[in-house]
Design a protein that fits this description.
- By secondary structure, the protein is of the alpha+beta class.
- It contains eleven helices and nine strands.
- It has three domains: 119 residues, Butyryl-Coa Dehydrogenase, subunit A, domain 1 (Orthogonal Bundle); 110 residues, Butyryl-CoA Dehydrogenase, subunit A, domain 2 (Beta Barrel), CATH 2.40.110.10; 142 residues, Butyryl-CoA Dehydrogenase, subunit A, domain 3 (Up-down Bundle).
- The strands form three sheets. A four-stranded antiparallel β-sheet has the order 2-3-7-6, with no helix packed on it.
- The chain binds flavin-adenine dinucleotide.
- The site of flavin-adenine dinucleotide has 21 residues, from strand 1, strand 3 and helix 11.
């Protein structure tokens, strides 16, 4: 099932992603750089002048290709998806065919054989493109790593190749109506019954909840054993009597994301579907993976802020008030100089975290601070940028309005910012 294709350049390692050529008049990517010319200083401050230290030439080539793919193929459809509250199931197969899924999954399990940076590039470009519903980042860089880092060899073989093609769409179900921050308090229970476990419980706020057909469910397998009573069970929903999807939730932002309620009433799964093959490891598996989830939120924040700055600069330079462009007012220039500083500082912090993470050295405290601090800066940046659009900033047809509403949840999901600060303060 190995998918190693398309060597990028002589000497470069083959990767499974396909470079998107696009039509001749491909939409601008917003990246503002040709991958090979990013080091030359110029008068205009733009991304090329501040290249991310963790990005290789291969990451940048992928970035250009993915940005073009999103802008050409998906951005034109995204208004319809926001209206529908979901991205169509076919987008998962399209992403799989394009080689955008599971880029950091080892090639022997059908993945891209790349590093986390490859998945990070796709995640950042989805955020920059303002798709408002792309769940591929969670699938590729949050759920797939549970399999290739914690799964048994049989589980890796059984699930990962189908995740890489989009045949399986994954979700991770931790949060319940009664508990979110306090994961040890989950009530969903998996009772052993011969060669099976029988799951009962309810989950809510689950990303990809309508499209998913492979769900990692956080369950208690022992009621009074604290962290040691938690296990991760793998539920294939295509053949799971008792499994039911609830409402697709109506959210403030991320309107094209099928975030949903899920119900489990006597759902039987084979004992072979306990992640890693043994019960009682779930909480420790979660703790191992959560720093990467938090870094992903920070990466999304950086890309969204960069897009907001780009949109706002373009707007204030053409919009006139009192006979001159908004840019000519000192307040506008000062505000945007402050925003630019914030964007650069957050990117420098996140880049440093990425360098550590790619070397296997990112600690939980720094990941928690990156998630909380970047998402707080994101909220402020979106607010300042929206203000400069005046009334137009409040209209959903302007990307800045969508960036603004999408930013709010960044302080909540993946562990609230209050929990992030609690966690980080334990190491101070
Ligand atoms: C769009 C969206 C997508 C999501 N996707 C997923 C998903 O795919 N899978 C999944 O499992 N979950 C998902 N979630 C759930 C998300 O992770 C939780 O909402 C989050 O962890 C907070 O849990 P809660 O909502 O139960 O809030 P609560 O835990 O009830 O917290 C409420 C408030 O109390 C504060 N608080 C709680 N405990 C403390 C404390 N010890 N000290 C100080 N303050 C505290 C919190 O910070 C918060 O401000 C998603 C949520 C949203 C909105």
């Amino acid at each position: 099932m190995a998918r190693r294709v398309l060597p990028l350049a002589p000497g470069a390692m083959g990767r499974a992603f396909r470079l998107y050529g696009g039509p001749e008049n491909s939409a601008p990517t917003g990246l503002d750089h040709a991958p090979t010319t990013h080091t030359k200083p110029s008068r205009t401050m733009s991304l090329p002048q501040f290249p991310s230290a963790w990005m290789t030439e291969e990451h940048r080539t992928l970035q250009d290709s993915v940005a073009r793919f999103f802008n050409d193929r998906w951005v034109p459809q995204s208004a319809a998806w926001r209206e529908a509250g979901i991205m169509p199931r076919s987008t998962w197969n399209e992403a799989g065919a394009q080689g955008l899924l599971c880029l950091s999954t080892p090639a022997e399990y059908g993945g891209g054989g790349g590093d986390f940076g490859h998945d990070a590039v796709v995640i950042m470009e989805a955020s920059r493109a303002n798709l408002s519903g792309y769940g591929g980042g969670l699938h590729s860089a949050i759920v797939a790593p549970y399999f290739f880092r914690c799964g048994t060899d049989e589980q890796k073989q059984r699930f990962l190749p189908r995740m890489a093609t989009g045949e399986l769409v994954s979700a991770i179900a931790m949060t319940e109506p009664g508990t979110g921050s306090d994961l040890q308090a989950v009530r969903t229970f998996a009772r052993r019954d011969g060669d099976h476990f029988v799951i009962n419980g309810a989950k809510t706020f689950i990303t990809n909840g309508q499209n998913a057909n492979l769900i990692v469910v956080i369950c208690k397998t022992e009621r009074d054993a604290g962290a040691k009573g938690v296990s991760l069970l793998l539920v294939e929903t295509d053949d799971a009597p008792g499994f039911r999807r609830g409402r697709k939730l109506d959210k403030v932002g991320l309107k094209a994301q099928d975030t949903s309620e899920l119900f489990f009433d006597d759902v039987r799964v084979p004992a072979a579907n306990v992640l890693g093959g043994a019960t009682g490891r779930g909480f420790f598996q979660l703790m191992e993976q959560l720093p990467q989830e938090r870094l992903i939120i920070a990466l999304q924040g950086v890309a969204a802020m960069e897009r907001a700055l780009q949109e706002t600069l373009a707007y204030v330079k053409q919009r006139q008030a009192f006979g001159k462009p908004l840019w000519d007012f000192q307040n506008t220039r000062f505000k945007l100089a402050e925003v630019q500083s914030t964007v650069l500082a957050t990117r420098a912090f996140v880049d440093a975290c990425m360098v550590s993470h790619l070397a296997g050295e990112l600690d939980a405290a720094r990941a928690a601070l990156a998630k909380s601090w970047v998402s707080e800066q994101e909220g402020k940046v979106m607010d300042e940028c929206l203000q400069l659009f005046g009334g137009y900033g409040y209209m959903m047809e302007y990307p800045i309005a969508e960036l603004y509403v999408n930013a709010r949840v960044q302080r909540i999901y993946g562990g609230t910012n209050e929990i992030m600060k609690e966690l980080a303060s334990r190491y101070m």
